[in-house]
Please model this.
Amino acid sequence: MIPVQPLLDRLAEIPDMATGSKRLVVVLGQLGDFDSIEYAQALVPRLPELAAAGVKVQLFGIGNGASAERFAAFTGFPFQQLIADASPLLHESLGLESGLQLPGGPWPGFLLMCAGVGSPGTLGEVLRGYIGDRSAAQIFDDEEWVEAFPLPRFRGALFRRAGGEGFQRPFELATKRLRNMNEVLRNWRTYVPCDDYITQRGATVLLDGDDSVIYSHRDQSLLGYSATMDRPLAFLDAVLSQS
Model:
């Protein structure tokens, strides 16, 4: 279990996030982490539905003011619901995974995690992005222009030729991740002012109005920000169905 009191203490400092309503709190790693961007992109379309159900949403991530501004502009997540911390003090107080730690700084451990070492499920999730997933939703509309260097600009309809429609087609998620990667790498020092915490993992906590925990997930790996990566926000279904 994630110790909830440090999170409640932090929420008490934020207007309208104290006890009394349901709150979805997502503790991200670096704001330049591919998981962080992908998670926010999944959340944005659901924000109106969450608001209608009385669920307040707050994100924490590692970075600074410029990181938060760039992150919000790229993902569409509301800047006012995002707090960037310079170091993972909140993560440490919640006992979250710091990732693979090796001599020589953060990069050796991070690169090994990208290869699946000390990061269970990462390679399988990478593969899912290439082979497709019939249990996951379609990502790109047919008429949408897709830009992901070094690929040429093309219409989303091209994915239909790779496998059909109405589900996540082969290469579709991989293309989205390539686009996200381009954004981060082109603006690395904005997203990641300090490399020290690039292996830090996050967590998700859904709190009820009385501060009891409805749901929690502790990230264990890269590309492991949900227990159900084909439907990352499936845990919200039960709560939203009651509204």
Remarks:
- The beta strands are 22-30, 55-62, 82-85, 145-146, 154-155, 203-207, 213-218.
- The radius of gyration is 18 Å.
- Residues 40 and 77 are 6 Å apart (CA to CA).
